[in-house]
Amino acid sequence: MATLQSHCRTAGRVTLVELCVTVTRPRRVRIENRLAGAVWPPRTDGIPEPGWDEQGFEGRAEPDDPLVLGYASPADPADPPAHIVAEGEPADEEPTPQAVVKALGRREPPREAMPGRETDGGSDGTEPVESRPAPVTDLASGSRPGVGAGDGGAEPADAPFDAWLGAVKRRLETAEDLAGATSVREAEAAVERAGGIAAVRRLQEQLQADHTALDRLAPQCSQVRERAEGVEVPVEALARLA
Hints:
The protein is an alpha+beta fold. 33% of the residues lie in helices and 25% in strands. Helix 2 crosses helix 4.
């Protein structure tokens, strides 16, 4: 019979769950989450470790090798945080789809195949974003691609820039979370939330590119603001002349 020991604690707004399954003979066990929130399993290069799914974990435990597991969740702690819902005799195990994908390597194309784009990693995958704010590269001259003097309403060129800036903010939040870790457990949890150590390395590269882009934009933004403060359109006079 399998025995489950569990413990959970909070790290910021995340609950970290630690599990240990012991058995007297080889058993295959199914463990499911009891927290009122999603399961964030351990990942490698953004891919969940074999055995994990949206509800919990299924795998093999040996008498001389306790099954030690851990996951995170946005839900509040509960006691117990997880429970064994099924167990049985272990069978000859076929490779899981997750194990096959992990063995094959990363599932996204290399960044060299996508010039001018970066990825904003996360625990649930990656989202492509512009690595530089192209619509505002000519801020100093006051011109913006796709926006003319007669355009009215919202400016479509704002959308790519807003998306880029939003991605920078999300990367900074992840970096601040990583930098705030003060213990081994906190560091492990922060790396897990970031999507794994490979994602952390990519994050560092992306932040360096963000820093360069922001340095380039800062003086242009100041110049445009000064021009905007110093100009006033003579609407009434133009209306009389037109």
